Amino acid sequence: MASYFDEHDCEPSAPEREARTNILLEIARWVRGAGRWTPGELRSLFISVDFEDLGLGVDWDHHLPPPAAKTAVESLPRTVMRGCRSELKCPVCLLEFEEEETAIEMPCHHFFHSNCILPWLSKTNSCPLCRHELPTDDDTYEEHKRDKARKQQEKHRLESLHGAMYT
User: Fold this and answer.
1) Where is the segment annotated Disordered (predicted)?
2) Is 3.40.50.2300 the CATH classification of the domain at 62-146?
C-alpha cells in the first residue's frame, strides 16, 4: 500500500511552513466567521504566534535601527563652542563651528550642528560617525539588542573557558 505522499506525488511540508499555515488558517477562520472571536481569544492567538518564524519579524541585523527615543534626543547636552572647540567641524556638513555656537554633543563625545544631527536621529538611533546607539522607543529592537548582548557575553565566556583549558 502506497503512502499518501507517494499516491499524490507530493512531499510532506516542513514543520515551520506547517505552523505558518495553521496560524494563517486560524486567522482566515476568524475573518470568515465575521470576527466572532473575543479579544482574549485573539490576544492568545497572537501571543502564541512567533512572527520571526512566519517571516514577519524584522531582521534587525539587516535593517536600519529605529529612530532614537525622543526623551534621549531631548536630553542630549547642548555645548557652546568656545576656544579650540570652535575649530572642530561638524562631521555631517563639514563646516567649522563658529565661536559661541551651540552644538549637540552625543554620548560618544562627537559634536554636531542641531540641524544636522536631529534629522538623522529622527530616522535612526546611532551616531553617524561611530554608530554609538541611543535608546529607542521600539520594544522589539531593544529586546533584539539585549539578546545580541547576551549572546556576545556567552560567546566571550565560552572563548575564555576554552582559552583557560588550553593554557
Assistant:
1) 140-167
2) no
